[in-house]
Amino acid sequence: MPKKIYTKEMIDYLKEITPGRFTEEVTEMFNQKFNMQLTENKIKSLRSNYKIRSGIPASLRGVKANQGKRIFSDEQERFIRKNVQGKSNKDLAELINHTFGLQITIAQIKGWKANHKLSSGLTGYFERGHVPINKGTKGMFNVGGNKTSFKKGQPARNHKPVGTERIDRDGYVIVKVQDDGPWHKRWRPKHKLEWEKVHGKIPPGFVLIFLDGNKQNITMENLKLVTQAQNLQLNRKQWRSEISEATLAGVNLTQIQAKVTKHKKGPTPVPASVSQNKK
Predict the structure, then answer these.
(1) Which residues form the domain of 22?
(2) Is the pLDDT of residue 179 over 70?
(3) How do residues 87-107 score in pLDDT, each as one tens digit?
(4) Residue 267 phi/psi, 5° resolution?
(5) CA–CA separation, 192 vs 218, rounded Å?
(6) Are the CB atoms for 109 and 96 separated by under 8 Å?
(7) Helix axes 40-49, 8-17, angle to 10 degrees
(8) Residues 6+ positions from 95 with CB-CB distance below 8 Å
(9) Considering its fold, how many domains does the chain have in total?
């Protein structure tokens, strides 16, 4: 705020009350005297402008500042120092919260101990001669012996028998066909299995499509064998539909388009040198 709003009486009073007092107390006294609502920062700025010093050593100002940041009372600090030995940060935090009704976190108690150079004395290591609870058993966490361990030949709890069907993440129905081998040999798409029962193996370069787009409608009427090039054209031209007849018409269009393209290209020309050699 501009200096001109402060009267000589105000400045003289500020000079009188500042020595030996913290800014908080000076601000309260000044506001009460002149019926104002200045902040501590305003009082600091005013004192700085008029070079008014409190004379309080920096060490005492630091103590005052830290008192406002304390998370524990003197009684609570004495309690912590008495009970810190042999307790983890988690156990100590729970004990403090239970005793004083606080909500201190593990991070807070850890930081407080570090700032006050306190240690629990715990090293985190087992003492010499300590017997592990899983001694004599297989597995690091196999506590209590091998009574529940898997035996050789025992099926897993989530084992699925051959013939089990499920829906994969792409929406296809897949069937378990065998127990051994890699995943893609143990599980196969059901629509391919059903097609191969009637028509045999799917030739290389061909794929099966669902005419109505429903991957779970596995009937011979809904399955159509097309080339990979036709499948690509169906996707590019957006000739697929939920109506089977419409998708089938799209397949026919791809066949017509392929014949037209082939006709436009015509027969492959024979180089003149090859033609003369034949003569």
Answers:
(1) 3-57
(2) yes
(3) 999 999 999 999 988 888 998
(4) -70, 150
(5) 9
(6) yes
(7) 100
(8) 83, 87
(9) 3
